[in-house]
């Protein structure tokens, strides 16, 4: 028997949320650039002020440094951030009666180019009002 099978989850203390930034789910194209791995066109699944989840069949190695660029929500400005691959994910789910999967990586931002940090903050504020 696995440990999780024998424990009543209602008796467990609440799980502490470790995210520092509110994350918004929105699917959009991104471009990743890496000195070691070249340029990659990908799909982002969510974004926050602190990072982004990028869908990839073969995520880059943990610790890889990337330049991430994507358009703002209204496509009026490009957002460019520098980040580090922090986690890999592989998720299975069911949709329309079929089993599906998605893999990808979490990139934590550590710097932004030009006004990108403010542009991203403004976009996230607009999403917060709309949701």
Sheet with most strands: strand arrangement = 1-2-3-6-5-4
The string of secondary-structure elements, in order, is EEEEEEH
* CATH-defined fold name: Thrombin, subunit H
Largest sheet: 6 strands, antiparallel, barrel
Number of domains: 1
Radius of gyration: 17 Å
Average residue-wise pLDDT: 83
- Helix coverage percent of residues? 10-25%
Shape: globular
CATH superfamily: predicted glycosyltransferase like domains
CATH top level is Mainly Beta
Give the low-confidence spans.
1-7, 15-19
**Beta-strand content bin:** over 45%
Named at the architecture level, the CATH assignment is Beta Barrel
Counted beta strands = 6
Number of continuous helical runs:
1
What's the end-to-end separation, in Å? 42 Å
Structural class by helix and strand composition: mainly beta
Question: What is the topology?
Answer:
Blueprint: E1 24-34, E2 38-47, E3 51-55, E4 65-71, E5 78-95, E6 98-112, H1 116-130
Antiparallel strand pairs: 1-2, 1-4, 2-3, 3-6, 4-5, 5-6
């Amino acid at each position: 028997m696995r440990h999780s099978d024998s424990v009543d989850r209602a008796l467990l203390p609440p799980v502490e949320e470790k995210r520092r930034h509110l994350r918004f789910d929105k699917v959009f194209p991104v471009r990743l650039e890496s000195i070691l791995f070249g340029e990659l066109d990908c799909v982002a699944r969510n974004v926050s002020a602190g990072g982004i989840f990028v869908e990839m069949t073969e995520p880059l190695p943990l610790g890889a440094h990337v330049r991430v660029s994507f358009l703002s929500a209204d496509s009026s400005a490009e957002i460019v951030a520098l980040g580090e691959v922090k986690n890999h994910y592989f998720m299975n789910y069911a949709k329309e009666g079929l089993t599906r999967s998605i893999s990808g990586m979490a990139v934590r931002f550590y710097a932004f180019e030009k006004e990108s940090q403010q542009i991203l903050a403004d976009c996230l504020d607009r999403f917060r009002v709309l949701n």
